[in-house]
Batch of 4 targets.
Target 1
Amino acid sequence: MSTHAKPVAAFDLVIFGGTGDLAMRKLLPALFRRFADEQIPLQSRILGVAREDQADGEYRDRVREALEKAVGGDDALGAKIDDFLELVSYHPLDATSDDGWDDFARELTRIDDHVRVFYLSTSPRIFVDICERLRQHGLNGDGARVVIEKPIGHDLASATEINDAVGAVFAENQIFRIDHYLGKETVQNLLALRFANVLFEPLWNAAHIDHVQITVAETVGVEQRGPYYDTAGALRDMVQNHLLQLLCMVAMEPPASLDSDAVRDEKLKVLHTLKPINAENAAQTTVRGQYRAGAANGGSAPGYLEDLGQPSSDTETFVALKAQVCNWRWAGVPFYLRTGKRMPDRVSEIVIHFRDIPYSIFEAGSGAIRANKLVLRLQPDEGVKLWLMAKYPGPGGLRLQAVPLDMSFAEAFGVQQPDAYERLLLDVVRGNLTLFMRRDEVEAAWRWIDPILAAWENSNNSPRPYAAGTWGPSASVALIERDGRTWHDGDGQ
Ligand code: NAP
């Protein structure tokens, strides 16, 4: 269904890692959908790059297969695949060798008035090689943009190294550090809710908000990503980027405009105000877990070590932690973050728990008055739910009940929600950096994460086991219940 989006100018997009999982499952389907929606001009070029030797035709066949899978049974959309494939070509190239780069550069510079985007959908290990060769061939000029995927490093030192290397070739305003959570409609709607309505902002502070919960739960295990995942773990893979970015969007002060630096300055301030978690307080404020075999996804699921094929590992597949934003607005309001694999549901949501009313005029028999909650659902079924107290209909006395004002974006606007990559890829072409992370944000996030990792490493404790298909170790429940609160349980109030 059309989202009536404005077309962008013709561009060239090079996907380094054009045969990889991310390119086939996310990037190319996202580009195709924007093309089918007439947002991408026919003169644009999409060039897949990887080491594998294959002809354009073979590559297009693989892309066709990936797109057919992505569009499912949508025949109208499927009919546009051939037109899209006209834009697609393939260049075998090893980013770590000089061979073939002259031809590649010649082909690319044949057209000189297109915005040029280099999407580094490869291991970060070769980011430096790719950038250096782009520079050698004069492909890093003003019209060029580079997109880098997470993980941007595995700690502050390695992130700084990557940022230095990419920054030596591209100016900061040419570098798009992608965090696809920021491209989700609900996250952008958080900006709309907070700053396009008068209702929420006066309440958006410690006087009216009791605490905030951010949950990103996956039902899957590590799947084929085991070898990478085991070197990362949930804190690096999810908290350092996605969950902290979501926390920043909730906690930041109103930016003066939607200008990229205005928004990113405010997010950075939040990261700087986070109370450090280190050896002194990590045991009280963090819980890490690792899944064991259990009943999950309607069957039985193996444990992490079996998935990994290793006898032992201290990598966490679950993290819960209590973060504190130390400023006037949020003093004393905990932000509870939780993420894990092999959870009972696939759900990403931000829950704003308001404070209790100061005084009740209702009789004891009217039912408990529950504090209001604003639930921002990122997946599945993006939407917003505001839990309010209302009178249960009919005679029989005034009985109170919590009911949700429920808005599914898909239903409210009658449009299919675009995938985050659709929005973000076209933002890159337009040069709009607002939803991308600036260097100082990434480094500030690592500066907060590194002491947690160090505290865990020095603690001699292993991650706590939890059964697949559960919400993590019981210590995660204890973490929040110690403060007299409970984790939000999906649909319930
Ligand atoms: P992948 O499936 O392993 O694909 C890697 C791609 O890089 C392949 O096309 C590979 O093709 C190419 N490649 C490897 N070495 C190369 C070289 N020396 N020169 C040129 N091309 C080379 O990885 P992926 O899952 O697509 O992930 C790509 C990046 O995105 C990673 O940094 C990952 O962490 C990140 N990411 C992925 C996802 C996801 O959902 N997959 C999500 C978030 C972030 P050849 O071997 O033929 O060269």
Target 2
Amino acid sequence: MIKISPSILAADFSNLGQEARDMDAAGVEMLHIDVMDGHFVPNISFGAPVYKMIRKDFSGIFDVHLMISEPLRYIDDFVKAGADIITFHVECDSDIQATIDKIKAAGKKVGLVLKPKTPASAVKPYLEQLDMVLVMTVEPGFGGQSFMHDMMPKVKELREMIDASGKEIDLEVDGGVNAETAKICVANGANVLVAGSYLFGKEDYKAAADSLR
Ligand code: DX5
Ligand code: ZN
């Protein structure tokens, strides 16, 4: 089954609660929450206090994507704010194993994210402990960028690694996903699609989300 995770980075920030309720009504499985610290990536977005406010407005999974240098320092805050799954970058400065352990000890799901230049092999030592692997199909930091087709061999390789592990691990793609690129991602083995600019701002969120499935 394909799961859709709209990125609230592209939502109307002056109306976040309504945006979350509208996505809930559209029947999407997850809400993708992009936390940026202006250090790991060149942009600053929002933190735990902001998405905590809309936890009540969405009944599905809060898929929190941390683009921050030191995720380990903030896991408690992200858990308290209502994250269901926390994904963090394998390129970050925190100890990867300690961060995985902390998220799991809080009873939450955990995923690792790969920037475009990072090979699939970087997650291999941790794969069996993960609930999700997220492949960036743009350089992280901004919404509305063009899809990087050359990430597809990596998606395929990760799908093969996941299948060989025999574990239930979601394979998510993030960046430049629209109705056309979604098909390509799914054909290469992705089962969770993040989409920001393609979904928010559309007249009919359900029709837009369904066009990705
Ligand atoms: C980029 C973020 C993405 C972004 C996707 O750094 O991780 O989640 O919001 O936006 P679109 O779908 O517009 O490329
Ligand atoms: Zn993201």
Target 3
Amino acid sequence: MTMLKLAKDKLKQIFGFDSFRSFQEDVISSFLSKNDSLVIMPTGGGKSLCYQLPALIFEGLTIVVSPLIALMKDQVEQLKDLGINAVLLNSSLTGEEYFENITQLRSGEAKILYAAPETLMKPDILDMLSSLKADALVVDEAHCVSEWGHDFRPEYRAISQIRKKLKNAVCMALTATATERVQNDIVKNLKLVNAKIYIDSFDRKNLLLRILPKQNAVSQTLEFLKSRPKKSGIIYCFSRKQADSLYLTLKEKGYSALPYHAGLSSLERNKNQDMFIKDDVQIIVATIAFGMGINKSNIRFIVHFDLPKNIESYYQEIGRAGRDSLKAECLMLFSYGDLQKIRFLIDQKNSEDEKRIARNHLDFLLGFIESKSCRRVSLLNYFGENYQTENCEMCDNCLNPKEETVDITIAAQKFLSCVKRTGEMFGINHIIDILRGSKSQKISNFNHHNLTTYGIGLEFSKNQWRHLARQFISSKILLQDVENFGVLKITPDGYDVLKGLKKANGYIEEEKIAASKTRAEDINYDEPLFNLLRSKRKNLADAASVPPYVVFSDKSLIEMAAYFPQSLEAFEKIHGVGENKLKKYGDTFLAIIIDYCRNNKIAKNAG
Ligand code: ADP
Ligand code: MG
Ligand code: ZN
């Protein structure tokens, strides 16, 4: 049997997957022939399989370098649940556990070892490993070797010395960071030989991308959550204060939520993160500090309550959703006011260069937000990928193709003239209040109810006016002085519009969002049964002190609740069911399904 054939068999037998994804097969085949490689795939792309599967076929040990203890633990738990003998060595182990793991390594029982680079550098460990037959050295999160990456770790620089000691080990580096500089750094630092570089598309097809004008962020968020009960998600806020207050609001409304930010003690942070991973809490309200090293695969939504820092952060943050390849939703609430907060942060930076770079990043983010064409096109272009599509069907702009622009000259003239009559000293909201004839104190204080423009804009709602105002700004007939409370000024182009020399075109917002189309991978499943299976999963996971997704992924449960397998043979066909899971959980889950079908008179439907 060829090694590749063997690998294909193990894919279903051990991992329970039907086919390879993207170029997993090429990577694995080249790795088994002992060629060094660099694998670049987006988060959730399936990097782990690229070395975990060969590790089962190599005679000797596969050593995996990983930067975070939490990540290692998670991986080892998942492997053990597949029936693969994996161990870890790090400072979190008790003396007894440590000794037990060393014994397993010495005896050759362990197939995979996870360790931090500093652990591997210890002379006694390194000696022991070089006396074993190690076939592979895998460097996960390999961007950590590069100062240009977003997470440089000096310890990673020592890995090439470890390599020297492991003469027979082929090397694979994996990362989700694609810039050329980082790639070169990895190859150079790890001394990869004739490395083949695999770069996967960064398109995360299962993420639905949406950006909405931020109006009342709290009620928009509540609205969003209301129609997604029991789903797991992260809400990102700009500040700790915001995160805390939103968390309290959610709690008050009865949501299962916890905060996560640098203002909490590390004990509390770990506790909250752990509860999230174990599905004991559904929603985390976090600052950007949250998410690194989270492997939870069933995160169903990411809400950007505030603007992300730049497009890279945005990509990373949304990337935490939908790692199980099921549909996940990413919603960003955007207001021009939020830009000021980020600009303020940028101004605190030390060097002019840094400021300039950060401003450019911000400009790009803004262009992405304001674009009326496919979100994926501009997002992926940013990462150097020439992505093209007629309609991706998974972003707001493709789902709601913007109608033809309409003539909005009259609206513009009303608005601009109001800006002019109030001396170009006010921001958007005040101008709208005048146009809509508000009776607020501020209006009467300034005597603005006596203006000729008072109450002439009742044809549009407040939200529609805000949307119009943003278009006036982005089409540069108005200038918003963001440093100065968002005061509006009329540009020369604006004066042309005001005088009727030029027309203004744009969109009038309709106040609804179409529901997204369902995709082929969204199968119809029985929700009550899914919930039964899920609580069983939770019990089993708690009893074994592992996160629920270690037992089964959401995708596996969904398939069970859709296909109602009635026998172990049918159960084995379910996604993620390999021989170990079948043995370990088959009877338990099957019993629930059979019982449910009998009680609800559901006919067999094994495929
Ligand atoms: P990465 O390390 O690239 O972020 P992972 O290795 O954690 O991604 O894989 C993400 C998810 O994809 C996991 O739930 C994994 O089980 C699943 N997966 C990987 N390869 C396959 C495959 N060939 N078929 C089905 N699911 C897969
Ligand atoms: Mg990974
Ligand atoms: Zn699109």
Target 4
Amino acid sequence: MIVLRSEDEISSMRSAGKIIKATFEVLRKRVAPGVRTVELDTVARQEILKLNGIPAFKGIRVGSRSYPANICASVNEVVVHGIPSERVLREGDILSIDIGVKFREYYADAAITVGVGRISEEANELLSVTETSLAKGIEKATVGSRLGDVSAEIQKYVEDHGFSVVRDLVGHGIGSALWEDPQIPNYGKPGTGPRLAAGMVLAIEPMVNAGTYEVETLADGWAVVTCDRKLSAHFEHTIVIREGGAEILTA
Ligand code: MG
């Protein structure tokens, strides 16, 4: 069941979204060659708490495992769920940062991918195509359209530019839990899936690979990597479906 949220609930999620945006602004300035991803985790935690949010990923359970950090920091071939570590960022890396925040019992979730120093032309194109595919998907997310319209738009834009969309991981509804119905694939057919209605809150998150769409999970049980170890990028926004177009809560 897809829950329709009240304006009060949406207002809390908007506050959570603003905390995420502010945290990204701080982190963007910190990302540089020589920085360890665990440092970014500490900075993010401090910023979120300072703004009266709660880092939503820490301790979240998936099966029998509990996520050990405040953010996800996924470098290069890591698609998502990279655990911040002593890994040192190097010039030319790309880093996906995913942040979830809880504010007054409601959640927002967003991700960006940034270059570390100067990055290759291909990496730059991958970031740009992934970010634009998210914007294209959001343009389709309006009252009366179908979820498949959003998914198909993202897939088409990505594949038209020679990249691939991950199949094994999807976006999701969000509200009083971080993951709610519906699942939101980044591939699909127009005119299929649930019809979108005002008040639905969705986390749309294209994960785009430079090579194959196939992914696998590393031995730590969290980090998802591309099977061919080529680069992957990830952008995500939490949005509310409204008449005439979505409102982005994390922009
Ligand atoms: Mg998400």
